[in-house]
Structures are given as C-alpha cells and as structure tokens.
C-alpha cells in the first residue's frame, strides 16, 4: 500500500526530505525527518492512536495544536502528544491502550536552577497579529521576546494556500496566506530588537509578575514590563451523536495535516459549518485531491464571504443551509454522516435526514479567543494589550492591522513621544473586521466589444486588490476604497492582473475582438493537480454553480504574474460569455446521499461533552435539571473538565446545555481555570529536564 502523502499540489512546493525509520507497535514504518508523529502515522494510514481507558473508544487526532491529549502515544517509553512531537530515527512509538504508562523516574532528582530573564515586552504568539506587533516594536527600538509553540512563525497564515482579502496597503491582500506569513516572519527574525523563541509555550502569568515559559523543552521564568497577547483562538466543538469517533476533528487540524505536512488524511470529507474557516477548508481539500461530499450550515445563509461559498459551489460541492449534523456514524471511525434540515428554532425537521458516505467529518463552527493570558496579566497587575483573535475573532487581514495598532500602543508605553495613533487607523481597523454586506444582484458591462473584465462579486467585503493592481485604473470601488464592491469602467489591456490577483476567483475576462458572436472567455483555476489541457471538454457554470453547457478548452496555463493561478481559455456563445465563471471538477456521484440504511451498530447514542474524561451531554444535563448551576460542582461529580486539555473544549459545550435549559449566563458559576495552559511533566522542572 502506498503512503498517503501529497505528491503534487497546485500551490505548495513538495520538497524532498530525508526519510527516517520508526516503529509503531513494533512494526517498522518510515517517516520524513522532523515531521510530527501524528503526521507520520497518518501518512502510513494509521488514524487510531489508542483506546480510552474509560470506555475503550478509539483515540486519534483532534486539535493537532497541542491543546488536547487525544493523540497521546508512548514514544521511547514516554507519553507524548503525537501532534507536537517529532519523529526520531529508530523511535519506538506505541499506542495507548487504557491509561498511559508513566516513565521510570527512580533515582535522585533535584530542582534545577531556573533561568530568570527580563525583557521590556513579552509577545505571546507568532501569528499575523503577533508578528505585525513585533514589526512595530522593532521599528521603534523596543526590546521584546516573542514566544510561539511551533517551529515556524506565521501561525495559521502558513496553513493558508489561498490569496487573502483585505487591503493591499495594510494586509498584503492578493498574496497567499503562507507567503504573507513568511514575509512577516522574515522581517521579525531579521531584526535587532526582537528575540524569537520558537517551539516554546507560555504556561502561566503568575501574580508576582513573572511568566513561566517552556522554551524548547526547558523551563524558564521571564519578567516582562508589558505583555502583548496575540495567542490567537481555539476552535469550538459541537454536541452530536458519534462526535468522539476517530475521523471527527477541526479545520485547523485538517489544514495542518494537508497544507503544512502535505498529508492526505481523508478520501471523502464532509464539513459542518459555513463560515470562512469551513468553506476555505473545503477548497483546500479539493486542492489536495480530496473529495468534498458536502457542507452544512445551520443558518439560512453561510456566514463566510459569498465569493468563497460560490467558489466551492462552482467546483461541485453542495452546500446545505438550514441544515445541521445529526450523527457521525461508524464503529470506531467515521464511515458516514447524517444531516437534517432544521427550523428557525434549530429543531430538526423529521423526515429530512440525509446520510452521506465519508471517512472524515470536519467541524468548523466558530472560534473562541485565547484570552486567559490577558486575564492573568490583568490579575497580576502587568500592563497588557491584546491583538488579533486573542482580542476579537476576525479575519487574518484584520489581525495584521490590529496587531500593528497594538504594537504601536505598546511602543508608546515606553516612548510617549511617538505620535498618537491616527483616527484613520481605527476606521481602517473597523472596515477590515467588518462583516460581509447583503447579497446583491450582479450587473455585467453592457458592451460586447473589445476585451474587459466581468466582476462576479455579490456583496461588500473588505477586499481591494483588483482595483489596486489595474494598470489602467479602470476598476473602481463603489463607496469605500477597501470595502466597496468593485466595478469596471474604462479601458482594458487584457493583462489579466485583476483576474490573477482576485482572492475569490470572481473575475473573468471576455474577449470579443476576433469573434463577437463566439467570444473567448478567460477563467481563473487553482486546482491544477486535476489537470486541464487543450481540447478537454469542461462543464461551465455560472456564479451560483448552475450549468451552462459543455465546451472544449482552447488552452490553460499560468501567466507570468498569476502566482500559480492558471488561466483557462474557452470559446463560448455570447449569450453565456458574461455568465460563465468557472467549471465543475467534482463528479455529482461523489455528493449523492446514500439510499441504504445505516446499521444500528454504527449509530451511537452518545453526545460527548468532555472528550478527555468521556462525560456525555446526558450526564451534564441531568445535573443541570436538578438545579446545579456551578460548573465546578459538575466537574466534581462527573470529572468533566478534569482531563489533560484543561476544559478547553467542554466548558463551551456545557454552556450550550445551560442555555438550552434556560439558565441565564449570570446565574452560572464558571469553571475555575487550571493554572497551567498545558500539562507539563514534572521532570521539566528537575535537573536534567526529564521528559
């Protein structure tokens, strides 16, 4: 059996890496040097990493971000998180069957002399906000330590293969997220004043104004004068039957496997959640050669940008609005998913169930700010600023600009002579984080002469690269220069820069110059691993994915400035020339619901709230109905929240149960947060740094 590595990608380079050998339950396997154990196992078609000690349920990847412990394995005799531990040559990796075995720590130990470090600023997080803030501090000569738990800076930017929205001037709109992340990282790592600690995790901000940090496995104490929290966000989870099966995980984990580690973790994917995160994950799946069976969204309309949604529909992915997941089905791993239509009160409508064959269910139902470091700093009396998702959930383009503002605020703390932040910056920040406007009708240019772009944007979103890049200045924004809807008015050279830079692939060109009755259209295309060649017949569709007919391709290639976007040329009748936007690449058979009945033994009744301790919604609901409104009491009775993740997932799910039972938020007693951000082996505090 071949491995499940991605061999060809339309955007990402697939580098040659040294191969190492390791053992999984004493069976020899191969991995790429320095890749995470979880990715190496997925590459070898191993998705179940062990079984829970409480109920024997299959354990595997969940967050791929080090914040849970579902991926725990035994590596060379030590329990570790597979998603955060690199494979070493000849490493012995074993599944955890029941409670993990602790390593032998017999022998004399002594507490080590912990290094004490002082700095002006501690920046927590090396994503778009943290890097943008660090650039401001560097420009103003403020010394800082930037801490990030990955081995590459950029945060979620390095997982994004698509071109970014926002403003060209302020957030590099039109560039791919991974390229933006590396550009910002180079600026920070090449500076004089910012010390970067990668593979390091902030553990806690103590009341004595000191911060405990695990720096590449070694515990250190850092005392900052000010803290800038740019730690980002964690994904929310959902309650549904079978939600703890192997193969149910978040969009961040999926993008980590696909876009960072170039692993194809699934053959057939179903997505729950129609915000930008879920829609973009679907697009990334298609780029990786994965079939996307469908996407469901509980609201009547997807919350993500319409151009993102339309892009997915056009490629052949059905989107079910006013639908929610009923169950993930399977014995240990997902084999199918059932969804159903819901009413205005989010109640399931009987008889509307649909079941689809898939092996992975991707949960993309929103984010929660990692705000605990801000709260801890405030409690300790340390001046603190927040930026990016740690302050407010928004797009990465907004995080960059808000990080810039937070960085300048921090610099002014040390150098009051720095000019005040202009009011226009705050206005721009509000625009970049604004929600998309209402969907509007499209109006194509009336002309049927020459060559010109047709812009298929249906709503106002913060995005202006097309107007910025036009050499003729012929693309304008209605109203706001960043957020207005673009329109064409003027001359066109046919340079295709607007087509190539558009993040939503929502601009086509129509050329009437040689044949007015059968013009040539130019379509953007980024799934080039599904190859399109001259004379291939493609199924053209309009902006909503409605079929327009089958037509032969004249040619397909990337232009000099298209940044890996191919341009596909097709000659069509003039009646559809301005309507055609793209073509379908996914066969409809992939997305058809199953007609056969799912066996009863593959439909589980449990809705798990606490994945660590296997506490169900029914157990929590029973206590709430008895009048328990203190989450700490629920924890004492059920152990919900006592697992390794420190209640990062289950607190939100318990809050959903309280709301469903009509308990007011002010009547709830919140869970007392665990002191440390993640669990740390005691050996890390001992001489020699035992694991």
- Please state the CA-atom Rg, rounded to the nearest Å: 26 Å
Q: What is the number of helical segments per DSSP (H or I, 4+ residues)?
A: 16
N/C terminus separation: 35 Å
Which blocks of ≥5 consecutive residues have pLDDT under 50?
none
Compute the number of structural domains.
Answer: 4
Classified in CATH, the superfamily of the largest domain is: FAD/NAD(P)-binding domain
How would you describe what is shown here?
With 691 residues, this protein is α/β, with parallel strands linked by helices. It has 4 domains: 1-105, 2Fe-2S iron-sulphur cluster binding domain, sarcosine oxidase, alpha subunit, N-terminal domain (Ubiquitin-like (UB roll), Roll), CATH 3.10.20.440; 115-233 and 369-432, FAD/NAD(P)-binding domain, CATH 3.50.50; 451-590, no CATH class; 607-691, Orthogonal Bundle (Arc Repressor Mutant, subunit A), CATH 1.10.10. Helix content is 21%, strand content 25%. The chain contains 16 helices and 36 strands. The strands form 9 sheets. Strands 9, 10, 11, 12, 13, 14 and 25 form a 7-stranded mixed sheet that branches. Strand 27 and strand 28 form a beta hairpin. Helix 2 packs parallel to helix 4, helix 5 runs parallel beside helix 6 and helix 9 runs antiparallel to helix 10 (423-432). The two termini are 35 Å apart. The mean pLDDT is 92.
